[in-house]
């Protein structure tokens, strides 16, 4: 299999705008979203990484190809100076789950060399822009593109952002994943949010009976229309005597339909995090 499959992910009209083809193609969507320029980090934010200068030092670590099956592949990196790119291939397999899942993720928030830690009783607001290509599908099994976990116990995920599928209908859903039944905090159709930058905001109060609020906009920036929002109390997000940290990327089961487990990618930019 070729290790540069992503040129097939773009519509023909986008491909015609591409000026060059690299080993792993750069999505022309960045040019098509010129009306949604990256925002400047907020002065009050504790975390506001700049991809071009912070690179992967903005995170506590990367979890991708942990079995070293594909050493020539480039999984997570700063691209274009203003965003992070996460690549995943259909034949990737994580070392967990007995070969039934795959993972390209980063974990934690690091500013100036210091890891930021979310503790019980604290309220954090985490915001970012996200680009979801048409090749990143909702699935019948789990596909998380955001998770919160407790490192020392590897417990969780507590709260997640999921891409789901029921028949032909695909949804993006913020969920209280560790609560009974993994209820949805907010959910909307995935299709309208594809192939453009959208803005996401979480407000999380950490604890075994915490709170979670989620908002996603149909476009980038505070002026874009709200696509979905919701909040929930008594959400299980405990630090368990350690701390809670977020994770971003693609973590999915390969037990979904093979037509949904295809080579794809995910982009993030404008990360910020603040604590009340």
Automatic annotation (TrEMBL):
Residues 1-36 form the signal peptide. The keyword Signal applies. Keywords: Signal. PROSITE patterns: TAT (PS51318). This is Polysaccharide lyase.
């Amino acid at each position: 299999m070729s290790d540069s499959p992503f040129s097939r992910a773009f519509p023909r009209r986008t491909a015609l705008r591409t000026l060059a083809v690299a080993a792993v193609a750069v999505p022309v969507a960045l040019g098509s979203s010129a009306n949604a320029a990256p925002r400047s980090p907020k002065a009050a934010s504790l975390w506001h990484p700049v991809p071009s200068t912070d690179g992967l030092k903005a995170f506590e670590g990367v979890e991708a190809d942990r079995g070293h099956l594909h050493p020539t592949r480039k999984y997570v990196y700063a691209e274009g100076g203003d965003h992070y790119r996460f690549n995943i291939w259909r034949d990737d397999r994580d070392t967990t789950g007995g070969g039934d899942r795959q993972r390209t993720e980063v974990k934690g928030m690091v500013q100036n060399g210091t890891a930021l830690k979310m503790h019980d009783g604290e309220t954090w607001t985490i915001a970012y822009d996200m680009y979801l290509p048409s090749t990143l599908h909702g699935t019948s099994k789990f596909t998380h593109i955001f998770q919160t976990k407790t490192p020392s116990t590897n417990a969780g995920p507590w709260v997640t952002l999921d891409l789901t599928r029921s028949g032909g209908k695909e949804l993006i859903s913020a969920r209280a994943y560790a609560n009974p039944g993994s209820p949805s905090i907010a959910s909307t159709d995935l299709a309208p949010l594809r192939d453009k930058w959208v803005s996401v905001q979480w407000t999380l109060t950490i604890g075994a009976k915490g709170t979670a609020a989620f908002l996603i906009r149909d476009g980038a920036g505070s002026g874009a229309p709200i696509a979905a929002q919701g909040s929930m109390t008594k959400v299980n997000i405990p630090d368990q005597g350690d701390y809670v940290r977020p994770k971003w990327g693609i973590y999915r089961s390969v037990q979904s339909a093979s037509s949904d487990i295809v080579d794809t990618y995910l982009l993030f930019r404008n990360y910020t995090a603040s604590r009340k």
